PBP1A family penicillin-binding protein (Bacillus mesophilus), 691 residues
Amino acid sequence: MLEVITNRRLRQTLKYVRAAIFIGLFLLILGFVGMLGILLYAKIEGPPPLAVPQSTIYYGADGTVIGESHQGQTRYWVPLEEISPHLVNATISIEDKRFYDHQGFDYFRIAGAAIADIKAMAKVQGASTISQQYARNLFLEHDKTWKRKITEALYTLRLEMNYTKTQIIEGYLNTIYYGHGAYGIEAAANFYFNKHAKDLSLSEATMLAGIPKGPSHYSPIEHLENAKSRQKVIVDSMVENNLLNEGQAKEIVDEPLSFYGKFDIKNQDIAPYFQDAVKEVIRSITGITDRTIQMGGLKVYTTVDPELQAIAESKMENIISPDSEIQAAVIVQHPSTGEVKALIGGRNYTESQFNRAIQAKRQPGSSFKPFLYYTAIEQGFTPSTTLKSEYTTFQYGKGTYSPSNYNGYYANDNITLSQAIALSDNVFAVKTHLSLGKQALVDTSKRLGISGNLPEVPSLALGTSTVRMSDMVNAYGILANGGKKIEPTFIRRIENHHGEVIYQSKRHTEQVLDRDAAFVTTHMMTGMFDEKLNDYTKVTGRTISDQLTRIYAGKSGTTSTDSWMIGYSPKLVTGVWVGYDRDFTLDLAAEKTYAKEIWASIMEEALKDEPVHAFKPPSGVVGVYVNPDNGMLATETCPVVRLTYYVKGSEPTEYCQDHLPHQYEEVPILIEDEGKEKPGLIKKIMNWFTP
């Protein structure tokens, strides 16, 4: 009985063994056929391209090419014989020491990495070969999906089956990212050491070979200690692989290196600061990676007007003394769309890529006052509201504040709001600010898109808080368009390498300001160029008013370290900032006039062939002639009269009595809408505001 049971068990065991052998053979054959199929597929698909075939191209608003990506591999591709052998050896030693022996996958390394990960219970060691890394770099999508991993493996096979090891290592070194916008070893050698890849020393080569593992973490410019530590790891691997001896290794690690830290730009593109801003916008609004921006074959249609950009650059260059170290920035924007038509972030892009038009935060001084006076108009003030201009000490909280006017001049009498903005009276501004409540100006500034810290203090009315120039120009654009929200727009649309639109700009139509109050503010801002508003001092735009051939609204601003001029026509708003990077004071007389001179020159040149457009008053305002000295309705006997706009219902009702003989009746100059005949001088003024 026992023998029968034993035989039965033996037959069952043999049955399982035969089944296992059969299944094993089947799986082996299936695996062989599958592998054969994969290899056949890889061969049929043929060689993948070893470089991304297209650079990203940037177009101006007129359709002309203003630039293309210059840190891409197609631009800096160099053959292997023009790459330092030290760099080749260092890279292979640290990244894939069996590169010349495997067929794309290092199975010993994969097994070792798996064991290390299991022991650590975490992902601690990579096993990707140079071929695998290169295959990954040929993709623009780096999402961590199984589909991407499988496709990457197939690309690796295609690389190995169709290219030599020399071609693969050449492509890899011309493709990998070395940080700071440098793709490929030629760009990296240029950026870090100001030399060609073929001229890299052993120490320089081992330093650069360590960067691709973590371009930001191992950048010797940003993290030298990390970079030196990584360099030692590479040198030790080269000693282990018999590429260096111990003596050479010590010399390399101890050798001090000098880093260049910039690209040697030979052919500068149009509007380089603008293009930098465009790239930043692409990152923020689309999430597209730096690599795709550089080498994704994108077509980026921007808003810049190359002709207007050239005008802005030439005016700035011609007006500022070439011997001066002062810096400047310019933004020209369309007030209805927010499209940036020209942008200058500094005087020399090659020397400094810091974009002062967008990145810097400076005190705007009196150029901040239009936001205050808009708030005042919105809350019931009028251009005829009067306050006393005199030296004043204000009490607030537990402290005091004593603002002063330019050169210590005061009217020591009442002046109108129209005069206050034209003369830039600081005492009037602070009195207005405090009477409205300090939060009111903060709220208006936020509505206008002014970002940053705006403390509720008396000096906020005088522009003592730092702001970005791009915010200021955009806010003036909102005043110019009647209070509709806009944002600085740099890009109209983006197409991918297939010609598909992947981004299209959209316009906002939200009304963020009262239209009537915005127009009244705009009209008051024309006063800085109108000497009819002269009083205890002259209007702030008098030095450039004779250069202007049309009506502009604007405001200047000056602090000890900053000079601003921002102004607009109905079709264009331009802002200019001048100052020093290191907070040096503006001591020379010429330095204090640069901003206004540049602004006037740009606006006049940009609009010289354009028809004159008036600031068109909305239906909710009314224009009347007033005596600008007291804001009362003007009479025929007033020596100076000025057309002034008011929100309907807030216009003055009393007539100026200062110049009427007592025996005469009041002889008013009537509200504009009544259509009565005006004196010749008045008629000329009216013509400025008629389309």
Observations:
- Residues 621-688 form one domain.
- Residues 120-125, 663-667, 670-691 have pLDDT under 50 and may be disordered.
- Residues 2-45 form the longest helix (44 residues).
- DSSP finds 23 helices and 18 strands in the chain.
